[in-house]
Amino acid sequence: MTRLTGRALRVTIFIGENDVWHHKPLYTEIVHRAHRAGLAGASVFHGIEGFGASSLIHTTRLLSLSDDLPVAVVIVDDEIRIRAFLPQLDELVAEGLVILDDCEVIRYVGRSEERAK
Q1: pLDDT at 63
Q2: What is the dihedral angle through the alpha carbons of 74, 11, 67, 35, rounded to the nearest 10 degrees?
Q3: 5 vs 98, which has greater pLDDT?
Q4: pTM to 2 decimals?
Q5: How confident is the model at residue 54 (pLDDT cuts 50, 70, 90)?
Q6: In whole angstroms, what is the distance from residue 63 CA to residue 74 CA?
Q7: Higher local confidence (pLDDT), 66 or 101
Q8: CB within 8 A of 68, min separation 6: which ones?
Q9: Is residue 103 a contact partner of residue 8, using CB atoms and an 8 Å limit?
Q10: Which of 50, 106, 39 is nearest to 74 (CA)?
Q11: Residue range 26-37: average pLDDT?
């Protein structure tokens, strides 16, 4: 299991839920590639409203016709691993936003480790 504490980088990828890579959701491809790359973890968050470079507002509100809600994929690991992963995001993300943030990992424990305490 990957150990991660202290200074790290967080990469957040903002895309649409309907974005695809070879006929499957783009967010799924990003998560699976992050897993294969041995990154510490990745999570996908489904947005309820937002807009991006197109300036079109996408929302879940009643009577809305939007079916391409925002999705954020968040990955945290040490800087070397995250920067090594960025070329894959360049390949995958044709439309969207990719940002990097410095962060500090306070606790990173898997379920099996947590139960052993």
Answers
A1: 56
A2: -60
A3: 98
A4: 0.84
A5: confident
A6: 30
A7: 101
A8: 16, 17, 18, 58
A9: yes
A10: 39
A11: 98
Contact 17, 69 (CB under 8 A): yes
* pLDDT, the chain, mean: 87
Q: Which long-range contacts (CB under 8 A, 24 or more apart) does 33-38 make?
A: 33/85, 33/88, 33/92, 34/75, 34/85, 37/81, 37/84, 37/85, 37/88, 38/2, 38/81
DSSP assignment of 20-43, as one string? EETTEEHHHHHHHHHHHTT-S-EE
Phi, psi torsion values for 104, nearest 5 degrees: -125, 125
By the 8 A CB rule, do 16 and 71 touch?
yes
CB 48 within 8 A of CB 69: yes
Q: Which two tokens stand for residue 99?
A: 């940002």
